[in-house]
Design brief:
The chain is globular and about 55 Å long. The longest helix has 27 residues, at 215-241. Helices cover 48% and strands 14% of the residues. Helix 1 (4-22) crosses helix 2. The protein has two domains: 54-213, 3-Layer(aba) Sandwich (Rossmann fold); 218-382, 3-Layer(aba) Sandwich (Rossmann fold). The N and C termini lie far apart (55 Å). With 408 residues, it is of the alpha/beta class. Strands 2-1-3-4-5 form a five-stranded parallel beta sheet, with helices on both faces. A five-stranded parallel beta sheet has the order 7-6-8-9-10. The relative contact order is 0.14. It has helices at 4-22, 24-37, 44-49, 51-64, 66-73, 86-102, 111-114, 118-121, 140-152, 168-174, 197-207, 215-241, 260-273, 310-325, 351-354, 365-368, 370-382, and strands at 78-83, 106-110, 128-134, 157-162, 179-183, 250-255, 279-283, 300-305, 331-336, 347-350.
Length: 408
């Protein structure tokens, strides 16, 4: 009889085979990535493709602990979401959602800022909760945030959401006063350099705080996201496969409000997986007009994360028309709902056409980031890189290294 881990792997392998059978583009990408990573297996294509499956597995773990999460949030007046890099962008993707649903102040703060000035970033009078997001659980800053909060705000509660339950940070939090841990499904802990499954899985885990006391509704939501995610993966690999990637040297990702954190993460993915060969920019649709639009030239790919909010969409459409009229960008892609009214402004993935699940903007980030992830993967391969380890110069690594924590 197979062990539990072997059963999990078998179910995941079955899911992946089904996805590969549906989309020839994914078979091509996986084969090319395997040739670049040999003799080691290629992780990044698998970790992008597995996301809908991993979301539901992680959500089941989170739903089982929803009562504990409610206890952690009880009597808390302020919530702070922290992490570094992609883990900080997890917080940005959750900030507005949780503030609206929890009806209390919620702020996303980079851990790289929090360790420098904790007393200026957190409210001393608040009954606070600091939620830390971490893929590897091995970053020096993650440990320092815990210490800084414990030393300066001993009454604060802390919660770690991580994809690596075997990490020292997981054990550290487990043995820290006023601290709790939430570990996600092991498959969500990416082995490739760039965060993909881990990013979206931690976002989905954080979304559970918007469904406290409603585990069935939360699981149904994640099921809907997973169905949509599978379709977006298929459409994204097809659309990106038609691009002339050798003509692209820059990428600009635009998103408003709830989708701005997704834009930040999407731009970072393309920067990381191309070792900086593709310059990237993340902005809002209104903000890009105030100077950053000069970034967009004839070799720029522009990605629109289109809001469903009527007023926001009007501003977004104005910008899209300006970009078209000025002939900016080598090509323009987009993702959103009810895109027919924007026909001719970009080539898009219409979420409302691939599923009956009406996902609101504040719950969309795990879906929207798929398109930039696929772009990043394809760009990396087009440049001749191994996506699992694209930084040939050693500029970055999977776990941040070289950080010395200094006493204040």
């Amino acid at each position: 009889m197979p062990a539990q881990g072997e059963e999990i792997d078998a179910r995941l392998e079955s899911y992946l085979k089904q996805r590969l059978a549906e989309a020839p583009g994914w078979r091509e990408v996986r084969a090319l990535a395997e040739s670049r990573s040999a003799p080691d297996p290629a992780h990044t294509p698998r970790e992008i493709l597995q996301q809908p499956w991993v979301w539901q597995e992680s959500a089941a773990i989170v739903a089982d602990q929803m009562d504990s999460l409610a206890d952690v949030l009880s009597d808390v007046s302020h919530v702070y979401l922290t992490g570094a890099g992609s883990s900080y962008y997890v917080g940005k993707c959750l900030e507005s959602l949780l503030q609206n649903r929890l009806q209390r102040p919620v702020s996303a703060i980079p851990s790289t800022d929090l360790i420098l000035e904790p007393e200026r970033r957190l409210k001393a009078s608040a009954r606070g909760l600091v939620i830390s997001f971490s893929r590897s659980g091995r970053s020096p800053e993650s440990f320092e945030v815990t210490r800084a909060v414990s030393d300066n705000f001993p009454t604060y509660r802390q919660l770690l959401i991580t994809t690596d339950q075997a990490s020292e940070l997981f054990e550290h939090f487990s043995n820290t006063a006023n601290a709790s841990v939430l570990g996600l499904h092991p498959a969500s802990c990416d082995k490739g350099l760039a965060m993909t499954s881990s990013f979206t899985s931690m976002v989905i885990a954080g979304q559970a705080l918007a469904f406290l006391g409603k585990p069935d509704q939360y699981l149904e939501h994640v099921k809907g996201l997973s169905l949509l995610g599978s379709q977006v993966l298929n459409q994204a690999i097809a659309i990106v496969g038609r691009l002339k990637l050798d003509e692209i040297r820059r990428a600009c990702v635009l998103g408003n409000g709830d989708l701005y954190g997704t834009a930040l993460e999407g731009a970072l993915k393309m920067l990381e997986l191309t070792d900086g060969r593709i310059s990237t920019l993340a902005e809002t649709f209104l903000g890009v007009r105030h100077g950053p639009l000069s970034f967009c030239d004839s070799q720029t790919l522009i990605v629109y994360l289109v809001s469903s909010h009527p007023t926001k969409r009007k501003y977004e459409k104005d910008l899209m028309q300006e970009v078209r009229d000025k002939r900016l960008g080598a090509c323009r892609l987009g993702l959103g709902c009810q895109l027919a009214e924007l026909e001719g402004l970009f080539e898009g993935i219409d979420l409302s056409c691939v599923s009956a699940y009406p996902v609101p903007d504040d719950l969309r980030p795990p879906l929207d980031v798929i398109l930039p992830q696929v772009l990043a993967l394809r760009m990396s391969l087009a440049l001749g890189f191994n996506p699992d380890n694209p930084s040939n110069r050693g500029a970055i690594s999977r776990v941040v290294q070289g950080v010395t924590i200094h006493e204040s």
